[in-house]
Amino acid sequence: MTSTPSIAYTRGPHRLTEHCHAWLVPDGTWGWSNAGLVAGAGESLLVDTLFDLAMTREMLDGLRPLTGDNPIRTVVNTHANGDHWYGNELVADAQIIASRATADEMATSGPDLVKGLLTQTGPVGRFARHIFEPFDFSGITPTGATRTFDNELALDVGGIEVQLINMGPAHTGGDTVVFVPSERVLYAGDLLFIGGTPISWAGPVSNWITACDRMLALEPELVVPGHGPVIAASGIHQVRDYLTWVQAEARARHEKGMTPEDAMRDINLGRFADLDERGRIAQNILAVYYELDPTLERVDTREVFRRIAELEGFTE
User: Fold this and answer.
1) 3-state secondary structure the chain
2) From CA 13, how far away is CA 181, in angstroms rounded?
3) Which of 76, 200, 294, 295 has a CA 20 to 30 Å removed from the CA of 56?
4) pTM for the full predicted model
5) Would you say 283 and 171 are in contact if contact means Cβ atoms under 8 Å apart?
6) pLDDT digits (tens, 9 = 90+) for 167-187
7) CA–CA dist 84, 171 (Å, integer)
8) CA-CA-CA-CA dihedral for 185, 191, 197, 199, to nearest 10
9) pLDDT surpassing 80 at residue 296
10) Which residues contact 259 (CB under 8 A, 6 or more apart)?
11) pLDDT tens digit sequence for 113-167
């Protein structure tokens, strides 16, 4: 993974421009996500909280030099995966904004979902504990959005224009990017995994490819992904290339009559083999198959984790 020359990929706060900042959390694998801060005159907007309360407290403390005179009045949750909103209760005094689709998903995506995976036996449980045990899901009060929008929403954050654009469904049912036009900074949420494998929980993959094109059309100069280092806009092509590749590979096997599970074992990752979380291809194949055949029965989360675990070497 390479970061932009001026933005090191190290844990903590990073100034991007005069008013835009990032909170980066290496190594960007499962649960280790980034957040952002737009500091205007007398108020700030926080882009996402983190996976547990301890991590979110660390971030809020680390951002205090910026937010002391410009308190966080607004929080935007980019999507409904817990590593981007489980810390919301610590900023509950702020207005919490999410797309309507994200807010609906948050209602069924609280910490109990992850806790359930951690208690599973066999490969699913071993894999879940391998990726999630560093986090503490106890004592979290799920705190959802207090304001929703459908497609786009423009905000004034202490004199700074901030645009919220829902580009989902793709990674999840609702995927909001946060764009600051005056400073050409884009907070992409999990529409971008840099150095790791994207995962299309909701799909369709074709819509995610379109979202990549929409992000490129904004012409940002600095992009903060949900996971991984800060990049220039050209880095968006890393994700787009993977998505177009997996779409073509899955479609070819669908046309041959292969099942999604057979397809996941058959595909050679080639130039994408060095990405972290390469087992996520199991879900990405499903997302393509669902798009090609809407009547295909949906696979539940536990079974998806079993397939990912198998590809990651967690077998019976």
Assistant:
1) CCCCCCCCCCCEEEECCCCEEEEECCCCCCCCCCEEEEECCCCEEEECCCCCHHHHHHHHHHCHHHHCCCCEEEEECCCCCHHHCCCHHHHCCCEEEEEHHHHHHHCCCCHHHHHHHHCCCHHHHHHHHHHHCCCCCCCCCCCCCCEEECCEEEEEECCEEEEEEECCCCCCCCCEEEEEHHHCEEEEEEEEECCECCCCCCCCHHHHHHHHHHHHHCCCCEEEEEECCCECHHHHHHHHHHHHHHHHHHHHHHHCCCCHHHHHHHCCCHHHCCCECHHHHHHHHHHHHHHHCCCCCCCCHHHHHHHHHHHCCCCC
2) 21
3) 200
4) 0.97
5) no
6) 999 999 999 999 999 999 999
7) 13
8) 170
9) yes
10) none
11) 999 999 999 999 999 999 999 999 999 999 999 999 999 999 999 999 999 999 9
Residue 258 has pLDDT above 60, yes or no: yes
- What would the two tokens of residue 248 be? 């073509």
Measured N-to-C along each axis, helices 205-217 and 281-292 cross at an angle, to the nearest 10 degrees, of 100
Six token digits for residue 286? 């499903």
* Six token digits for residue 221: 């100069």
Q: pLDDT averaged over the chain?
A: 96
